[in-house]
Specification:
By secondary structure, this protein is of the alpha/beta class. It has a single domain, classed as P-loop containing nucleotide triphosphate hydrolases (Rossmann fold). The protein is built from 2 helices and 7 strands, in the order E-H-E-H-E-E-E-E-E. The protein has a 7-stranded mixed sheet, covered by helices on one side. Helix 1 crosses helix 2. The chain is globular, with a radius of gyration of 14 Å. The N and C termini lie close together (10 Å). The structure holds adenosine-5'-diphosphate (ADP) and magnesium ion (MG). The site of magnesium ion (MG) has 5 residues, from helix 2.
Length: 151
């Protein structure tokens, strides 16, 4: 990411169940204006895919149940017009850029691109419109921080 980027904290929420995280994802979706790149950071089990279920459902691109982890396939596409892309870079070795994932030019279209393990893009990442950091606090508690990135 561009070092001159300005990070603005938008919201912070602690959820206590997967259902609550899905609902928060739906709330987030209301505020996303495509084209938009959303980078999700956080350890395995932090709840990234669970949150994406709510975001994709909130965008009206698919039902929650249709959203599954793309950790093997790398990218899932939702919506009849391919309006939402969901990628998971967990299995990617080293820094790769969006172009090598077939996600090039998406930021110029009316698409929302949701990337789990977005930190793996390293300096190859285009400036996202939103960054979401998720943290496992213990048992079913997850802290979710939403940041807007400008610049
Ligand atoms: N508050 C919560 N928010 C999200 N997931 C939760 C929560 N509490 C428990 N979980 C469980 O944690 C796991 C999160 O998995 P997942 O969303 O796939 O994480 P990630 O994509 O970050 O690896 C799921 O099994 C889910 O049921
Ligand atoms: Mg996941």
């Amino acid at each position: 990411m561009n070092r001159q980027s300005t990070i603005i904290s938008l919201a912070e929420r602690v959820t206590h169940s997967p259902e609550e995280t899905v609902l928060f994802g739906r709330e987030i979706a209301v505020h996303l204006q495509p084209p938009c790149l959303v980078l999700l950071e956080g350890d395995l089990g932090a709840g990234k895919t669970t949150l994406v279920k709510g975001i994709v459902a909130g965008l009206g691109a698919a039902s929650e149940d249709e959203v599954t982890s793309p950790s093997f396939t790398l990218v899932h596409e939702y919506g009849s017009a391919g309006s939402v892309y969901h990628a998971d870079l967990y299995r990617i070795e080293g820094a790769r850029d969006l172009a090598t994932l077939g996600l090039e030019d998406l930021s110029n279209r009316a698409t929302t691109v949701l990337v789990e393990w977005g930190e793996k893009l390293g300096d190859n990442a285009p400036t996202p419109c939103v960054k979401i950091r998720m943290e496992h606090l213990g048992s079913d508690d997850r802290r979710i921080r939403i940041e807007r990135v400008e610049g």
